[in-house]
Amino acid sequence: MTAALPNRIPNDSARYLSDDPRQRLIVALDVSTAAAAQKIVAAVGDSALTYKVGMQLYTAVGPQVVRDLVASGRRVFLDLKYHDIPNTVGAAVAEAEKLGVSMLTVHAAGSGKMLRAAADAAKVRTDLIVLAVTVLTSMDGQDLEKIGVRGSVEDSVVRLATLALANGCQGVVTSAREASTIRAELGHNFAIVTPGVRPAGSSIGDQVRVVTPAEAIAAGASHIVVGRPITEAADPAAEARAILGQINS
Ligand code: C5P
After folding, report:
1. Which DSSP symbol is given to 147?
2. How confident is the model at residue 2 (pLDDT cuts 50, 70, 90)?
3. Does residue 21 have its Cβ closer than 6 Å to ligand 1?
4. Other CB atoms within 10 Å distance of the CB of residue 206
5. What is the Cα gyration radius of the chain?
6. Does ligand 1 come within 6 angstroms of the Cβ of 173?
7. For residue range 100-123, what is the model confidence (pLDDT) as tens digits?
8. Phi and psi (nearest 5°) for 66?
9. Is the pLDDT of residue 41 over 80?
C-alpha cells in the first residue's frame, strides 16, 4: 500500500536518530512501588537516560514518581496509551506535559481528531514527542478480525501510522517486525519505538516474538524499550551497557 506522505512530519530527524546510543534506549520500570523504581534507576546509573513509566507503576504510585524522575535529570516516557474522546485526551496530554515527560503514548485507533487533540496539547513544548500506538504486539490478524478490522496486521500498522503522522504525532510504537515497512512507506523523519527486544543470548521470558537490539535498530527503530533483561539483571548497569554496545554494532 502506498501511503500519502503527511505534511506535518517534523524535519528534524537528528532529534529522533541520535548517534549516542543512550538516546535510543528506554528502560521500562514495570514495578509497583516508587522504591523499586528508584532502586532500578540507581542501579542503571548513567547507562540509560530515559525510563518508561507505564500503567502498572503509574496506577500504583501516581504522578509523583514521574516528577521525581524528571527532577533527577532523567527523561520519562509516559506510556499510558490514552484512548478517549479528543477533549479528554487533549486535557490528559496537557497534564502530562506539565509533569515534564519527554514522550507519551496515545492509541492511533482513537481517530484523527483524537490524535490531533493530543498533538495540539503537546505543542507547547517542542521537545515533547507524542507517539501513537499502532497495533499492540500481542494482537494478531485473527484478533484484529474479531474487532472488525480486515486485512493484515502490517496494513493496519501502516494505515494507523499514516493517520498519526498526518495528525501531528511525532512517532509510533510498533513491533520491530513492522518497522522496516513503516520506514519504507513513510520515511525517516519520525520516531519508531519498539518493545519486545531481547539482548542477544538472553532468556526470552514470556515474549514470543523477540528481536535483538541490533535487529530492531536495523529494522528502523529510533528507540528500543527494554524491561526485564535490564531491571532483573544481577548488574543492570552492565546489562544496559551491553545493550548500548549492541545498538552501536
Ligand atoms: O518484556 P519487557 O520487560 O522488556 O517489556 C518492556 C515493556 O515493553 C513492557 O512495559 C511492555 O508493555 C512492553 N512490551 C510490548 N510488547 C511486547 C513486549 C513488551 O509492548 N511484545
Report:
1. T
2. very low
3. no
4. 5
5. 17
6. no
7. 999 999 999 999 999 999 999 999
8. -70, -50
9. yes
- The whole-number pLDDT of residue 52 equals 98
Pairing of strands 129-133, 171-173: parallel
Which residues partner with 106 through β-bridges? 82, 132
- Give the up-direction half-sphere exposure of residue 101: CA atoms within 13 A in the CB hemisphere: 28
Locate cell 548500548: which residue?
244
Predicted pLDDT of residue 242: 95
Summarize pLDDT for 164-202 with one digit per residue, the tens: 999 999 999 999 999 999 999 999 999 999 999 998 876
Phi-psi bin for 148: left (phi > 0), alpha (psi -120 to 50), beta? Answer: left
Give the distance (Å) from ligand 1 centre to CA of residue 4: 30
Q: From ligand 1's centre to the CA of 98, what distance in Å? A: 26
> What's the pTM value of the predicted model, to 2 decimals?
0.92
Q: Provide the grid cell at 234.
A: 544481577
Q: Which of 105, 103, 111 is nearest to 86 (CA)?
A: 111
Unique residue bearing C-alpha cell 546510543 = 21
The DSSP-derived string for 21-32 is GGGGEEEE---S
Residue 206 has pLDDT above 90, yes or no: no
| Tally of CA atoms within 13 A in the half-sphere of 204 that contains its CB | 10
137 lines ligand 1 (CB under 6 A): yes
The two beta strands, 50-54 and 25-28, are parallel
Q: Which one of 39, 81, 123, 146 is the catalytic residue?
A: 81
| CA distances to 34, 88, 158, 249 from 149, in Å | 39, 25, 13, 38
Residue 146 among the catalytic residues: no
Q: How far is CA 111 from the centre of its chain?
A: 19
